[in-house]
């Protein structure tokens, strides 16, 4: 599949057949967490603009006690009691955070749930946005909404893999960093999920 010719019907079919395969879970050391993970979900929004396909991201607002403050992310958050499933949670969070009307969103499928270093079990929900749509970010949670072209993200020259040590003596975990795009730094779980999706649908050669 060419990175310039995304076919959302094909993506939906691939996710139904193989979405449970990626991303691979991080092998955290025994005893690293002292509680079960909290369920959460994020929306990975794809849309077609005049210059081709893009992926929508947010930059989180700055909060002193938020360990992910100011980072690039996907819209999303913890599952609430009102959410019937991960899809509902991702759509609700996207509406709350950036004003994305669920009526303009078509769910394509899921990637495999991923346990984060902050002890969330995140289900990545892949979707297509019927672009253009009005977006109204909640300034309490989001400082910026922006997008990056799929063609740029799918170029292996634009990201690199490094290793992070969790604690002294622990084995390292893989961390992906993209080059800055318009000043924004895409890394961590958001970069991991982006690369995992592109690997799964054949846009990017797997780099381990």
Helix/strand layout:
Elements: H1 8-18, E1 38-49, E2 52-60, E3 72-73, E4 76-78, H2 86-98, E5 105-110, E6 114-115, E7 120-129, E8 142-149, H3 150-153, E9 159-165, E10 172-178, H4 188-200
Write out key terms for the chains shown:
208 residues; alpha+beta; Nucleoside Triphosphate Pyrophosphohydrolase; eight-stranded mixed beta sheet; two-stranded antiparallel sheet; 4 helices; 20% helix; globular
Short précis:
This protein has 208 residues and is of the alpha+beta class. Helices cover 20% and strands 32% of the residues.
Oligomer: single chain
Name of the CATH class of the domain at 8-151: Alpha Beta
End-to-end separation in angstroms reads 21 Å
Order of helices and strands: HEEEEHEEEEHEEH
Textual characterization of the structure:
- This protein is α+β, with helices and mostly antiparallel strands.
- The chain has a domain at 8-151: Nucleoside Triphosphate Pyrophosphohydrolase (Alpha-Beta Complex), CATH 3.90.79.
- It contains four helices and ten strands; from the N terminus they run αββββαββββαββα.
- Strands 1, 2, 3, 4, 5, 6, 7 and 8 form an eight-stranded mixed β-sheet that branches.
- The longest helix is centred in the middle third of the chain and has 13 residues, at 86-98.
């Amino acid at each position: 599949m060419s990175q310039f010719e995304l076919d959302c019907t094909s993506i939906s079919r691939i996710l139904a057949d193989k979405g449970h395969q990626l991303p691979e879970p991080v092998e955290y050391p025994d005893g690293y967490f002292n509680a079960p993970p909290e369920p959460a979900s994020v929306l990975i929004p794809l849309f077609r603009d005049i210059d081709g396909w893009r992926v929508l991201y947010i930059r989180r607002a700055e909060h002193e006690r938020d360990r992910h403050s100011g980072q690039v992310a996907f819209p999303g958050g913890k599952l609430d009691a009102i959410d019937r499933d991960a899809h509902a949670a991702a759509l609700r969070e996207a509406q709350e955070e950036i004003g994305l009307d669920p009526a303009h969103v078509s769910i394509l499928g899921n990637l495999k749930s991923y346990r984060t270093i902050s002890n969330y079990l995140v289900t990545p929900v892949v979707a297509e946005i019927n672009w253009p749509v009005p977006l109204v970010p909640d300034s309490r949670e989001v400082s910026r909404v922006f997008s990056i072209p799929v063609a740029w993200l799918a170029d292996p020259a634009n990201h690199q893999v490094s290793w992070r040590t969790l604690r002294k003596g622990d084995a390292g975990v893989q961390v992906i960093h993209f080059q800055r795009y318009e000043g924004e730094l895409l890394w961590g779980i958001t970069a991991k999920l982006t690369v995992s999706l592109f690997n799964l649908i054949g846009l990017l050669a797997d780099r381990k």
